[in-house]
Each structure stands twice: as structure tokens, then as C-alpha cells.
Design brief:
heterodimer, A: 163 residues, mainly alpha, 4 helices, B: 105 residues, mainly beta, 7 strands, 12% helix, globular
Chain lengths: 163, 105
């Protein structure tokens, strides 16, 4: 049974952050596969990549929000909060980049833009690749905050009192 | 119409780069610094202070931080962007703990 003390504000971030990490990386891989296929084979992969991108970009902003809630609590206890600041900046960058990719993808899907669609599809993929680069960096700095500085981690008493 | 759409597409592409002005923070040695309040985050009782030598300090108030104006204790909501302040900070690791914040104007 999970203790009531488990549901601290800073816990919502690790609970929500792994969804966009998985979904957006998968979306990027699917989109890359799509542009490598012949045009008549692309349909499923383009749609799958697009749906993953829509879900992932929403999940990214949810994670940015929960991260902002956690930051106010965690940063006060870290030995090097500059790592957390780098994490925050990169997280915003990736969220904006995937938002740009989503907006462009939607514009293409609903035919708001009808010229140079092949080039614009390529730009969507390039944005997603750039966003994925930030995603890897955000994951690295997030892990550094948790595993090197115990950010947001409950540290039990030496005698394990309470367990 | 085609130009309009091209501009729309161009603006969409610019969107990701609009965040490029996001600033990082700096770490300084323990001491007293004068500067300007660059940003106030009331929900986090946090301020950013830009010092005279262009360093940006991120300061999270704690239970021991004193905030004064003309020698009198004031509430956090008295802090505003653009105010001149003097901050006394204690560097712990790479974290800056604000010991005292004095509003100068």
C-alpha cells in the first residue's frame, strides 16, 4: 500500500514525464521510417507518427507544468540548482520545438498549406529530430538531478524508522 | 493568398525559436551584491537579480531570509521587477541562499 506521504507535489513530475519521453521518441522514429518508405507505403506510418506527435506534444506541456511545480520545491535543496535550470531551459526548448512540429503537421494534414508539402514534411521530421536531441539532454539532466543530487527524493532515516 | 500561406508557414517555423531568449543563471561567491530585480516568482517565493556585472542570480527565499525596506521588514509581495536591491547571499555548493534582501528604492 502506498503511503499518503508519497503524493508530494514534486512526485507528479516523474509520474508524468516518462510519457512524452517514450511517445515523442517513438513518434520521431516512426516519422523517420515514413519518409524513408515509398509514397504508397507511407500512409500508415505518417498517420501513426502524427497521432503520436499530437499526444506527445500535449504530454510534454503537462510535464513542463508538473516540472514547474516541482522546481519550486526541489531547487531549494539541491547542491547545484544550475543543473535544474539547464533541465528547465532545455525542456521548454523541446516543448516549443515539438509544438512547432505539431502545428506544421496539423497545417499539412488539414491542407492549410498545399505547396512544397514534401519539403515541409521533411522539416517536420527535422524539427522532431532536433526536439529529440533536446529530449535526450533533458533526460540526462533530469537523471543527474535525481541520482546525483537526490532531487525530490525522500531519504529515509538511517535506522529506517517509519518503514 | 500563396504569400499569406508562406508567411503563415514561416511563422510556424519561427515558433520553436521564440524561446531562444531564455536566460540561464550564474553562481557567485558568498557576499553582498547590488542589482536589479529581473523577475519575481511569487508562487515559488523566488526572485532573479541582475547584478551590476551582468550576473543573473536565482534566489529562493527560505525561512531565514529577511526582506527589508528602509530597515523595516516587509512582505514578499513588495518585491517588483525593476527594483534596485541589495542581496546578501551564502553560497552552499553551487546553491545561493539569500540571507538578506534589502529593497533600495
Amino acid at each position: 500500500m502506498i503511503d499518503q506521504n508519497f503524493w508530494r507535489t514534486e512526485i507528479w513530475h516523474p509520474l508524468s514525464v516518462h510519457f512524452p519521453v517514450a511517445i515523442l521518441l517513438l513518434a520521431t522514429i516512426v516519422k523517420v521510417v515514413a519518409i524513408l518508405l515509398r509514397e504508397q507505403q507511407q500512409g500508415f506510418w505518417q498517420r501513426a507518427g502524427a497521432y503520436l506527435l499530437y499526444i506527445g506534444f500535449l504530454a510534454a506541456w503537462v510535464s513542463v507544468y508538473t516540472g514547474s511545480l516541482a522546481e519550486g520545491i526541489v531547487a531549494r535543496k539541491l547542491c547545484d540548482p544550475t543543473i535544474l535550470k539547464d533541465h528547465e531551459i532545455a525542456a521548454f526548448n523541446l516543448a516549443y520545438i515539438f509544438t512547432g512540429a505539431t502545428a506544421l503537421e496539423l497545417a499539412l494534414r488539414f491542407e492549410l498549406i498545399k505547396f512544397k508539402t514534401g519539403l515541409l514534411q521533411l522539416i517536420v521530421v527535422l524539427l522532431m529530430l532536433a526536439g529529440s536531441g533536446f529530449l535526450v539532454y533533458v533526460g540526462h539532466t533530469g537523471a543527474t538531478v535525481v541520482y546525483q543530487q537526490a532531487g525530490g527524493v525522500n531519504i529515509p532515516a538511517a535506522d529506517c524508522a517509519g518503514f | 493568398m500563396k504569400n499569406y500561406k508562406a508567411i503563415f508557414a514561416f511563422l510556424l517555423l519561427l515558433l520553436p525559436f521564440m524561446y531562444a531568449c531564455q536566460q540561464g543563471t550564474d553562481v557567485v561567491e558568498s557576499g553582498t551584491y547590488q542589482g536589479t530585480v529581473d523577475e519575481v516568482e511569487p508562487a515559488k517565493t523566488e526572485i532573479y537579480v541582475k547584478t551590476a556585472d551582468n550576473k543573473r542570480l536565482e534566489l529562493y527565499f527560505n525561512e531565514n531570509t529577511t526582506l527589508t525596506r528602509n530597515g523595516e521588514t516587509v512582505q514578499f509581495d513588495q518585491l517588483q521587477k525593476g527594483q534596485k536591491v541589495e542581496v546578501e547571499v551564502n553560497k552552499v555548493g553551487q546553491r545561493l541562499e539569500p540571507v538578506a534582501v534589502r529593497i533600495l528604492e
